[in-house]
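user: Here is a favour to ask of a fellow structure person. I have my own habits and do not want them to colour yours. Could you put it straight underneath, so I can go through it closely?

assistant:
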Amino acid sequence: MSYRARFGNDNSACDSGNSAEGSGSSKGPDEVSNDFDHEIAQLTKHRSRPHRLLSGDMAGKSRLPVSTMKMLAGRESNYSGRGRFSLADCCHVLSRYLPINGPWGVDQSRSPAYVSQFSNDGLAFVAGFQGGHIRIYNVEKGWKVQKDILTKTLRWTITDTSLSPDQRYLVYASMTPVVNIVNVGSSTTVSVANVMEVHEGLDFSIEGDEDEFGIFSVKFSTDGRELVAASSDASIYVYDLQANKVSLRIPAHQSDVNTVCFADETGHLIYSGSDDNLCKVWDRRCLMTYGQASGVLMGHLEGVTFIDSRGDGRYLISNGKDQTTKLWDIRKMSSRAIPRLTDRDWDYRWMEYPAHARTLKHPNDQSLATYRGHAVLRTLIRCYFSPAYSTGQKYIYTGSSDHSVYIYDLVTGAQVAKLDHHEGPVRDCSWHPLYPILVSSSWDGTVARWEFPGDDQVPTLVRPKIRRRRGFY
């Protein structure tokens, strides 16, 4: 049975009568309180607050959460005069059905899993493994492998992948200056680099630059014409796919740039995060004039491992090696950064975070909120906003080196769910854009699927013997 049949169409997806809210109900951290009154809190509530008439709240008093049955009764009686649920009504219902049941096995490998990514429409899912395999699964057809890719020019691991907006091409990066591109729209199921199909190499190095570097993060632009990449030479690169060359190199940070992304669909703004503890904002329209960042966001005490944009060109979240996720508003950024505050002999790749450091705070912290509970060790753990369609971006979620996936309420900071199953760090995870489905990928080699309510099968997953190793990225 397809996911559309199981979960329903746009309106019927909101008609389920039972909710399964996250098993965790822990109080939010000190940095996020219930009186968090910033604009993003109001926007989030607006996106996921039901119409007061559908909720039966004729007097206009707030009584949340509103029961699904009451909302259904209000819709059937057409209290709102629209005869259907609004997007906010749907979000209010769907956001209460967290993907916490399972897990079900998607795939199993002897090699650590590094990447988990749903396509924008949720019909395809990409998993990348350290051993050089990338698999694309057809979600609607029982997670059947649609494309099995054996990579080339691999150094250490696949650090990142990105699927083009039209889902015709996939790029993959490693610890080299070359990003490879594969035609995933071809009819060939197995794609062995330069044997079954050509994996074209896109060289990000600049002529005359003899230093080797690796790519930690790579992303397509919304229009599919450009790639933006973060590198170990402290730079950001923009690659023009039509001209087949690097169109922009920005000496962006004082250390490795671990993460980069476009802020919104325009492609003008770029967010970056680095081991120099900073997040930076770059406006490409001003670079030719000023050649420097539009602003700096300070608050992390250790390096930044990942950034996710809310997609509105204003808000972003970041994971840091100081064991926190932070929420930012770029309107609060500074024009310059103060010198790096920490200089301890500590390496997140094989050392535990010092206990005394967990209580430290940046004296110039510009973040709106800080979320704690997960662990950012061993590898570049990733974090994300939950989907706009089904949750109104009400949550943030992150992998963790303690083998779990954590889901936090954006506004209150409460941990609403913790998904425990894996036997190794969960580097990446991905929430389906339409349905309550989440996939986690771990160094134990497993790619696991979490759902609400879940399919008819009994959740089963072979637990592999974990291979102990020191990971770096």
Observations:
- The first strand starts at residue 101 and ends at 108.
- Confidence is low (pLDDT under 50) at residues 9-30, 53-63, 464-470.
- The chain has one domain: 101-451.
